[in-house]
Specification:
Elements lengths: L4 E2 L4 E3 L2 E2 L5 E3 L2 E11 L2 E9 L10 E9 L6 E3 L3 E4 L1 H10 L6 E4 L5 E9 L6 E12 L2 E13 L18 E9 L17 H16 L4 E11 L6 H22 L7 E6 L3 H9 L6 H8 L5 H11 L1 H10 L7 E9 L5 H10 L6 H9 L6 H13 L4 H13 L3 H9 L5 H13 L3 H13 L5 H18 L2
Parallel strand pairs: 9-10, 15-16
Antiparallel strand pairs: 1-5, 2-3, 2-13, 4-5, 5-6, 6-11, 7-8, 7-9, 7-12, 12-13, 14-17, 15-17
Length: about 475
Amino acid sequence: MRTPKILAAVAVVAGLGIAEASASTGSVTVKSLDIARNDHRLYLTIDFDLSQLKLRSDEDITLTPVVMTPDSSESIVFESVVIAGRTARYRHERHNDLGGARLYEAGKLDNLRYTATGDDATWLDDAVVKVRQTEGCCLKIKDRIEEIARLKRPRYTPMYNYITPVGDSVKTRDLERRAYINFPVNRTEMYPEYMTNPQELSKIIHTIDSVRNDPDITITSIFIKGYASPEGPWNNNVRLARGRTATLKEYVETLYRFPHDFIKTSYEPEDWEGLRDYLEHSSLANRDALLAIVNSDLEPDAKDHKLRRDFPTDYKLILTTVYPWLRHSDYRIEYVIRSFTTLDEILHALRTAPQKLSLSEFYRAAQSMPVGSPEYNEVFEIAVRMYPDDVAANLNAANTAMRRGDYEAAAVYLDRCGDEPTAVYARGILAALQEKYEEAEEWFGRAARLKVADAPTALSQIKAIKEYNEQYIR
């Protein structure tokens, strides 16, 4: 069996460390107390000072150590010791009435080292040690019990640091979409009823209207970029991409009274990037060879010619199934959202359109709720979904995740926070909550050097836990 480890340094008697204190049970003094835990057993050692104990020959005193929870709901009762005057000792020996208790004669020893074992229990990290004293003489019994120590295992208590986001002076947003407008072969004229154009044009109109008709939003610009496929001569594709983009712009301008030059345009004569993306994700047998041509330094027309010549079967497939999707128009609507000035407005937007809130508005909403409540946590969860790359949003979401015990989510959020000092400190919290105390100590040490206010206190907590574990935990 391994040597038991001592727990006594965390016990206190009258507010003092146990090694320095003594407690009196009548005329018996407890000079020291050691508690050890090993192999699911509890080991108790008490040094009783009997030098001041005065008993008549027919008197005795019984000492019974008890370890119990602070509310006395659970307990471990250890075997008793009886200290008896000469006559009382003879009486107990003659009647054999001690029930296994140890018997000592008063006056023959000044110090008694008591040792006993009992079953271990999880609640022993926070327990009370007491001694029950039973005095007997001439069939008169007097009982009393005195507390001699309290055991208190140090625990980590996190102090979460939430970041107050810097308010957005202007809440700028954009909405990006793609449309596939059909044009007659080699022409730039657009017919709204041609092929799938009614559906594609309707998508563009619906997207613009969804933003334009919102009273909280002001559109600041619209941008359209047209693309042609790599099929055919480069110069002709320049003409098609430029002309078709201009045609789409003119069509949109006829539907709205936007200021002059409100809609900006650009074009890409041949969407080689789109073709590259398709090939990289395809299962074509000649994929790597096709990609090598696409990624080469050849001129666009030479690339297209080489693809057609070297891989005619693959090229035919690409021509019919891929090139039509490379003729598209991408459009972006840029807009600003007004600021919400009252808490009622912010809370309404939180319920109905959280994408309209700035981070500072999310934070203001959270401040109106009880800290740590489900509603409070939800605000930060929504905020990080709206701002997935923002450090403040991720750090605050990490704190709420740790509060509810979701350490996996907290780690994901903290990975997005870089080396911001509060994030370094939060990584220490996460490690401490997972009982990774070496790692926590390192993070808190770094945070302390970065002047995070709560880091020194957290570091002290971790050091106390480590010292306790090194000395007292099996």
